[in-house]
Write the structure tokens for this entry.
Amino acid sequence: MSTPLPSSTAPGGHHAIAAAALMATYMQAVNISIPNAALPHIQATLSMANDEVGWVFSSYIAASAVTMSITQWLAGRYGRKVVYQAAVTIFVLGLALDALATTSIQFVLARILQGTSGPLAPLSLAILLEATSPVRHARMSLAWTVCSLLGISSGPAIGGWLSEYYGWPSIFYFSLPMTGFIFLTMAQLLREKRAERSRSFDFFGLTTFSVGMIGLQMLLDRGERLEWFASTEIWIEAGASVLGFYLFIVHVMTTKEHFLRTALFRDRNLVLSTVISFALGFVLLPTLALTSPMLEELLNYPVDTTGYMTVPRGVALVGALVLTSLVPAQIDYRPFLVGGMTLVVYANWLMLGYSPAMDWRPVVEAGLLQGAGLGMLLPALARAAFGTLDPKLRPEGSALINLSRLYGSTIGIAVVQLFFYANTQAVHVALAKNLTPYRVAAYVGGSVGKPGLAALNGMVTRQAATVAVIDQFEILMFAMLVMIPLVFFLRKPRPTG
């Protein structure tokens, strides 16, 4: 890892720098979820298969996770301003290629390129802290977190409205004015200062860990289509994942310095918080990935209305986050962790009651409760993770927490997509096994032609998909439920001087 990089801003430019950094944080976050409500339009235009939909999210997130890991090393070697401007440029190129894509492969590759702008978020936070006085650091860190969550939460509403009235490519043009402001502001006002020294980065450790995660991701994404281990590709992906994780574990156990130092794993609170953060990511984005298609394809809501229905969830999330952050440090954070998890579990339990006959109210109510629970969790989890950690390890601890949440989202999306299509097939077979022309005719008192039988099959498919969606909400509910006992193993934070 590199040493902290001192960089300064031009005189009088602190407010503009802060605005640009917060805008960059929002912009990068909103592009995670902005395709969510627009997926039916994207899927139809690009002839995207159902099992490829998850790649729209996981490709962007996985690329961001990898490049975030090397942000500090890149900034120390090439300079923070150079890396920041390069990340903005790559982001713009990714946006353009997203909008111009004509095939699903082109679109996924463009999303990967766009995701490699991962250094934008951590560098924006570092620049924010340098542009403000130390007494305002806590407030700026909260503003940075709010912008990030606001971006994820508002993405579906913005994407749904733009795609409905201006076509789905417009959801990527939405960020172009922001990138222009960010690039020009940083080019004129941010001064570059190189780090005095920069230690070598553990590329072997990062590579083996990334190979393990990407192999697992591809295994989950492609397994159902390729009939699992009947396919040579699945064997290759499984082998790459196992080998990558094995080499990474051996490397961590036998090497003194690597990009995740062993000292991090000696802190019980950080380890448990990392596990809980993975579960939080597992629930956060997969819920959006399930809800929008359910509303559009099964309940026949317009794309823009689907996006609007995610707004209450985001408002509750940000509101609960701000209120929980204002709780004095002397108050034990653990009740807030349990309370947040309980709200998330209860919200997912309410989602089990979804049906084709419902209106918009159950979706909004469950979204509000889940958003409030997640908003309580995030600041309480930060206090749990860093309350007992050596201050020297906090930058790496923060990177570990962020990685776990990002990879939790990618794995969560892959898992819910996998089980959704598998369950849809199984339920469809169970419901339609007696759907033959002769049996149907016996019930309706006459013959049934192929068009009528096709309509009945369509109804059965919708019912099977509805059952499959509800089953995935159950998985998300249990993913958070099993995390609650971990709270009781967390230590109280160290008293501050």
About this structure: Confidence is low (pLDDT under 50) at residues 1-8.
